[in-house]
């Protein structure tokens, strides 16, 4: 499937890749804004348990950065970081983080779909 953007054909693969990149940037900037807001509001450092979850988020955000050049590797890091985030939440607090934390996996899913399209030879439709 192709989409026409101002007299230019854009493949599904490219749209998925752009979606992964843009959503990764949006999620990172949103998370950064949330953290800065919390630091200003509370004016104190978070509990040490929060740093364990932050380690998983570092893995997720490193995956976002890799998505720009290496879709498969970046996707794997995003998925490992997301699973790690849920595991760390379960281990440190005894409860799972909310399902809204799965939003962090969306750029990885989009990049993995783009990688799969590329691997299969891209778009086959005219």
Automatic annotation (TrEMBL):
Residue ranges of the TM segments: 15-35, 50-68, 75-95, 101-117
Keywords associated with the record: Membrane, Transmembrane, Transmembrane helix
Superkingdom, natural source: Bacteria
The protein's name: SPW repeat protein
Organism phylogeny: Bacteria, Pseudomonadati, Planctomycetota, Planctomycetia, Pirellulales
């Amino acid at each position: 499937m192709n989409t026409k953007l101002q007299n230019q054909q854009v493949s599904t693969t490219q749209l998925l890749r752009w979606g992964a990149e843009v959503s990764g940037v949006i999620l990172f900037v949103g998370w950064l804004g949330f953290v800065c807001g919390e630091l200003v509001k509370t004016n104190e450092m978070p509990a040490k348990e929060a740093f364990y979850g932050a380690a998983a988020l570092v893995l997720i955000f490193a995956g976002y950065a890799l998505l720009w050049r290496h879709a498969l590797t970046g996707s794997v890091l995003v998925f490992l970081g997301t699973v790690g985030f849920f595991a760390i939440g379960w281990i440190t607090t005894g409860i799972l983080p909310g399902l809204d934390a799965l939003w962090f996996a969306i750029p990885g899913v989009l990049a993995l779909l783009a990688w799969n399209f590329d691997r299969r030879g891209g778009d086959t439709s005219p």
